[in-house]
Write a structure and sequence with these properties.
ten-stranded mixed beta sheet, about 35% helix, two-stranded antiparallel ribbon, TIM Barrel, about 20% strand, alpha/beta, 12 helices, DNA polymerase, domain 1
Length: about 350
């Protein structure tokens, strides 16, 4: 199959145009058409010679993200279900904040990590996405915002899949969307979330970027975390904490811990106290931030949400031990915006 037009970095395009015997500036023109003008076909690239457009047509394909569904929430959240060329489907979400528009992208079709509270893992992992299929989600989201003159200001790599199990594609995606001659999303405005793929946390620390890292932790100890997150059996809690310690020491950057609160499972005061102890004994607290996430109800999982007053009690307990903590603002609850829910409905419909 032909490579996707969004698979290439600017440096890749420079090598390609050179191989075609074209002047170097053509690479910049192609990149500009893709990410600044957001062309959707080679024919639109009118300042390129017809012969070059013909070569592009022969050697590349525009990624086919077919919009299968679009849901818009009363809070401004927009969720897309995109169909891929092989018949699979993925989700992408635009979230509106007071500081701008954020897009949440998917890195895999399905997920094999198996978190018991997450709809993304239903059906397991189908395949990794190519870098261009991840980039295309951002381009599609930006095209949707172009109609109202708005811009994507930040990216969260927190959609379906585990980015650090598709590490090379994810890193190439990040380089493409960050490039100042393209979409120009600043590194400090990008966050990658991992469930704790320990070897690649070390790799990411050594990348020397300003990109933010979030760790899905969801429990303060091995036993409970293994029940909620089977990935913990591959990469035990103690090893994860050591990798986090390395990341903070190597980068000096703040590390976010995502903690989904599940009614009666991991949301007691004693869990908060144990979490505070682990963090304070291993990491410098000024570089630690805990983001509490009231769990979304997923019918297939039958978990319940922690009551509101107990969420605040969990927060106060962490604060008592000087842990920086916030509660994630819920968005898109009226459109099944929890990761994987729209895709799960689509899979059910196809099966029927």
């Amino acid at each position: 199959m032909l490579p996707i037009v969004y698979d290439y970095t600017l440096e890749d395009w420079q090598q390609w145009v050179k191989a075609q015997g074209e002047p170097a500036f053509r690479a910049g023109q192609i990149f500009d058409w893709l990410y600044v003008k957001r062309a959707m076909s080679f024919e639109e690239m009118t300042n390129l010679p017809k012969s070059l457009r013909a070569k592009l047509q022969e050697q590349f394909r525009f990624v086919a993200l077919e919009e299968l569904a679009r849901q818009e929430s009363k809070d401004g959240t927009v969720k897309f279900l995109f169909g891929l060329s092989d018949g699979n489907a993925i989700e992408t979400v635009i979230m509106k904040h007071n500081y701008g528009n954020s897009v949440c992208v998917t890195t895999q079709v399905g997920c094999r990590v198996g978190c018991t509270f997450c709809a993304s893992t239903l059906g397991g992992l189908k395949r990794d996405l190519a870098p261009g299929e991840i980039v295309a989600q951002v381009v599609k989201a930006q095209k949707a915002l172009d109609a109202s003159g708005q811009r994507i200001s930040s990216i969260v790599v927190m959609g379906i899949g585990e980015p650090f199990e598709n590490y090379d594609a994810t890193m190439k995606f990040l380089r493409i969307v960050n490039h100042d001659k393209g979409l120009n999303i600043g590194q400090r405005h990008i966050t990658v979330s991992t469930s704790g793929i320990v070897p690649n946390i070390y790799r990411f620390a050594d990348e020397n970027t300003q990109i933010n890292l979030a760790i899905s932790i969801h429990a303060p100890n091995d036993e409970l975390r293994s029940k909620l997150m089977p990935v913990n059996r591959r990469f035990p809690f103690a090893d994860l904490i050591q990798a986090c310690k390395y990341y903070v020491e190597k980068t000096g950057r703040r590390l976010t811990f995502e903690y989904a609160l599940i009614g009666g499972k991991n949301d007691r005061v004693e869990h908060a106290e144990e979490l505070a102890k682990v963090l304070s004994e291993n990491l410098p607290l000024p570089l630690v931030h805990v983001n509490l996430i009231p769990v979304n109800f997923v019918m297939e999982r039958n978990y319940t949400r922690t009551p509101r007053d107990e969420i605040f009690e969990f927060q106060r307990t962490l604060q008592k031990y000087n842990v920086n903590v916030t509660i994630r603002r819920e968005q898109g609850s009226d459109i099944a915006a929890a990761c994987g829910q729209l895709r799960a409905k689509h899979m059910d419909a196809k099966a029927r």
